[in-house]
Amino acid sequence: MSRALTVLATGPLTTVQDDGRPGQAALGIGRSGACDRASAELANRLVGNPVGAALLEVTFGGLAVRAEADLLVVTSGARCPGSPHAAPTVLRRGQELRLGPPAGGLRSYLAVRGGIDVPPVLGSRSTDVLAGLGPAVVAAGDVLPVGEPAGPLPGVDLAPVADPPTGEVTVAVLPGPRADWFGDSGWRGLTGQPWTVSSESNRVGLRLDGDPLEREREGELPSEGMVRGALQVPPSGTPVLFLADHPVTGGYPVVGYVVDADVDRCAQLQPGQVLRFRATPG
């Protein structure tokens, strides 16, 4: 068999991701791509892949694969027992790799030298679970082709990066275009209390539990453009922090935006973990 990985088990959710479909929002096409972009980029760099090569995004471990040829692999993001974490390792033909559930963090990235070579859709190999674009969600029995190496190896044995935190996480937030709908009391409510990540969270967004934000303005909005990091407040008053597969437009007011560098950290939060927002001037 040619260069490939055979999927034996997938865990809660495994998808193929790359750097997504940027620049197509005007056509109603969201970017999608890896939820934790920095971790995905690191994994690709460690095996000598070009920026944006397709890899596997694994949610809370559980992935098991078998190499159908000698392949150089590495994981990044959430550290799973059994993985060559941040340290490139050769997976010999017939050898299996099994990822246990991570103690900290939610999403792990498995990069293979040469990249996952499934057919692209609209210029990307990313699976957008909201729009239904891209390759199907990875399933047991899938045989994922691996491309030929395209660049030199970086010569790094280990990347000394910190694991995602397991405790309370604080991120920077900027006022959104509809912050005035909630007034000063709403902004203080957003930044002055701890929020708990709900188990209903997914690649579309983090649903947060806490004391609801009260509107100071009635009515509804026409749909407006949405971006990663937006904190949209539905009628329940509890915010939703949009992640990679967020909708292109939405009609609920956006009270704030998490700064882009911190959205990657939010993508690693496990259900039940506490998130705080630190106000940052616009």
How is this structure best described in words?
- With 282 residues, the chain is mainly beta.
- The protein has 2 domains: 4-145, no CATH class; 169-279, Cyclophilin-like (Cyclophilin, Beta Barrel).
- Helices cover 9% and strands 28% of the residues.
- The protein is built from 3 helices and 18 strands.
- It has a 7-stranded mixed barrel with strand order 10-17-14-15-12-11-18. A 5-stranded antiparallel beta sheet has the order 2-3-8-5-6, with helices on one face. The protein has a 4-stranded antiparallel beta sheet with strand order 7-4-1-9, with no helix packed on it.
- It is elongated.
Put simply, the count of helices is 3
Give the N-to-C terminal Cα separation: 55 Å
Mean of residue pLDDT values: 96
Main sheet, how many strands, which sense, barrel? 7 strands, mixed, barrel
Total domains:
2
Rg, Å, rounded:
19 Å
Along the chain, the helix and strand elements come as EEHEEEEEEEEHEEEEEEEHE
- The largest beta-sheet arranges its strands as 10-17-14-15-12-11-18
Helix content bin = under 10%
Envelope shape? elongated
Low-confidence stretches: none
Compute the number of strand runs.
18
Percent of sequence in beta strands: 25-35%
Structural class: mainly beta
